Amino acid sequence: MDTSPDLSFFPGNHWLYFSVYLFTFLVGLPLNLVALVIFLGKLRRRPVAVDVLLLNLTISDLLLLLFLPFRMVEAASGMRWPLPFIFCPFSGFLFFTTIYLTSLFLAAVSVERFLSVAYPLWYKARPRPRQAGLVSGACWLVAGAHCSVVYITEFSRNSSYSHTNNDTCYLEFQENQLAILLPVRLEMAVVLFGVPLLITSYCYGHLVWVLSRGASHRRRRRVVGLVAATLLNFLVCFGPYNVSHVVGYIRGESPAWRSYVLLLSTLNSCVDPLVYYFSSSGFQADFHGLLRRLTGGWRPWREEGSLKLKEKNEEGGSHGSCRTGESGEVGACAEGK
């Protein structure tokens, strides 16, 4: 069975990959850096469980974004891997781990949001940052353990088929590699995507039902935004990619369109800031305050620069009138000074 992908699938299209990676990097990096600053400030003031979870999600997104240039280099090279081989499994491991960390952390956040509405007095009296830290550690461990299959797959090639004969990274697989990879992908689709999706759907379904009975319009609007951003992540960013795992397991090979839907998963780091924004009114207040400080620092500088330019123009105009006048007018200017 030919397990190699049709590489004619990539030529010309590799610039699509590069463009998506570049867009994700340019948009996601500043948004997640802002979120990192806000969550660190909130945790210093009053650590609560949901902020611990969202801080870990932000760190996960930043890891994805910081190593995304590896993928850009690969795409710019026509989907060939020009870097040292050691970076291939490492970048793949981080790439897939951070993707599945998002689904786990979104499920944990949905549980926290449901508890905050269903049991508000109990929730406010128990911030539980330590428990959230333990849950975050478990999420990192579970996602990392599953995605270590990248290392297992890359180093399980037959000795006669070394990396020097295969200059792609995690795109072409032998039959013995697929025998390991396809069942693990199926398990990941169930455990790291299906289960978190069910938990999130249940919690947010009950959350919307509880709020529909008497919450303020502002709070309902914020929850609707949170639910919409979360479902966008699950159904659009992660759904098609995990469907490719099921299809690949049934067919015994990776579907040709798998690499395209993987691009949607990359975009989750641009969608996650929407989850942060709608997660709490405190984050919104801190975000708007940070924007006011940034724009407030820019406006005085701009006004000062305009004032200096205006004064310079006026001074230049007065000098010009003295130079163009007759000798008597020059004397008048000198007297005026």
UniProtKB/TrEMBL annotation:
One of its GO terms (molecular function) is G protein-coupled receptor activity. The keyword Mitochondrion does not apply. The chain crosses the membrane at residues 15-40, 52-70, 90-111, 132-152, 188-211, 223-241. Residues 31-276 form the G-protein coupled receptors family 1 profile domain. Residues 309-337 are annotated as: Disordered. It is found in: Cell membrane. GO terms for cellular component: plasma membrane. GO terms for biological process: adenylate cyclase-inhibiting G protein-coupled receptor signaling pathway; cellular response to fatty acid; glucose homeostasis; mucosal immune response; negative regulation of blood pressure; negative regulation of insulin secretion; neuronal action potential; positive regulation of acute inflammatory response to non-antigenic stimulus. InterPro entries: GPCR_Rhodpsn, GPCR_Rhodpsn_7TM, GPR40-rel_orph, GPR40_recept_FA. Belongs to the G-protein coupled receptor 1 family. This is Free fatty acid receptor 1. It comes from Canis lupus dingo.
